[in-house]
Each structure stands twice: as C-alpha cells, then as structure tokens.
Design brief:
With 176 residues, this protein is an alpha+beta fold. Helix content is 47%, strand content 14%.
Length: 176
C-alpha cells in the first residue's frame, strides 16, 4: 500500500474517533485543524461517490470497524486522481509539520508514533533498552562460552532486556 494512503488513513482514524479532541490535546490546535481539513476533504470526496458514500458514513460512526474499507477507497481515489493525491499530500505534510510527526511505511509492517514500538514483517519489537544480544529468525547457530544453541525459530535474548509491556512465550528450560 502507498505510504501516502497509510498516512492519510492513520490521521483520519485518529481524528474520527472524537473529531480531533484527542489530537488537540496530544499534538495541538494546528495539528487538529490540519487533521480536520484532511478529514473533511476525504469525506467530501468519498460521499460524492455513491459506491463509497455508505462506507464513509459508517467510518464516521465506527472508525476502527471501517478503517480497512476506507483505506482501500482512499487508495483507489489517489491512484485515479493525481490532483487529489497532491492536495491530500499537502494536507498530510501540514499535519506532520504541526504535530512534529512523520509517518513513513515502506513495504509490509507497522508504523509506530508518539513513542510506540513497531516491527515489520518477521521483525522483533522491543520497547525499552537491551543490553546483550538478540537473535531472531530460523536456523541460527549461536555459540558462547557455555553452550551452542541451534535455533529453529523464535527469539533468544542474552544479557539484560528492560521491556515495557507484555511478553508472551515460555522458558525453554522449564517449559513454563
């Protein structure tokens, strides 16, 4: 998916939840205004298209539930109308300048903003600091003074890892 489409979709999703009230608190008046202009422009364009009008209305009521159809519709509109793409790109840049945020996603994966942590496809995301090494992937062979580890998948962390949030997995030595 085009990075511009993803940036638009992300901003619209944040704005639509409460019509910019949270954005106003988090990023300031100028960012909330820019997001509002972007929201109005996109909604106006989609509501003018009978095939997209219902999804646009549903998105306003349930942004999370209709994010995927909205993103697809935005992507189609941008590909079909270079002038619209240029106008929306300008509004995204205005939002990014006002909020101090740059949203870029190339290829598959995730976008993290405002201190979040994200990893691309097959990646490992760690929030916090890591001392030591992290080995991820399949069929790795790791040797240290104590042992040789042959990996068939998963992640090994040696040293100290200060992780913010949840960690899911099991201890290989105890199976718990």
């Amino acid at each position: 998916m085009d990075p511009l489409t993803l940036a638009i979709s992300t901003i619209l999703g944040k704005y639509a939840i409460d019509k910019g009230a949270t954005l106003l608190k988090e990023a300031g008046q100028a960012a909330a205004n820019a997001a509002g202009k972007l929201f109005e422009k996109v909604m106006q364009r989609l509501k003018a298209d009978p095939a997209e009008a219902k999804n646009a209305e549903r998105f306003e009521q349930n942004p999370e539930g209709y994010k995927a159809p909205m993103t697809d519709a935005i992507d189609e509109k941008l590909k079909a109308d270079p002038n619209l793409a240029a106008e929306l790109k300008s509004l995204v840049e205005e939002f990014q300048r006002a909020s101090g945020t740059t949203i870029i996603n190339t290829g598959s994966g995730a976008v993290a903003t405002h201190g979040g942590v994200a990893a691309g496809a097959g990646g490992v995301a760690v929030g916090g600091s890591v001392g030591g090494s992290i080995v991820a992937g399949n069929h790795n062979r790791v040797e240290d003074k104590r042992q040789t580890i042959n990996r068939s998948g998963g992640v090994d962390i040696s040293g100290t890892a200060n992780i913010t949030g949840d960690v899911t997995g099991r201890d290989k030595t105890t199976g718990k």
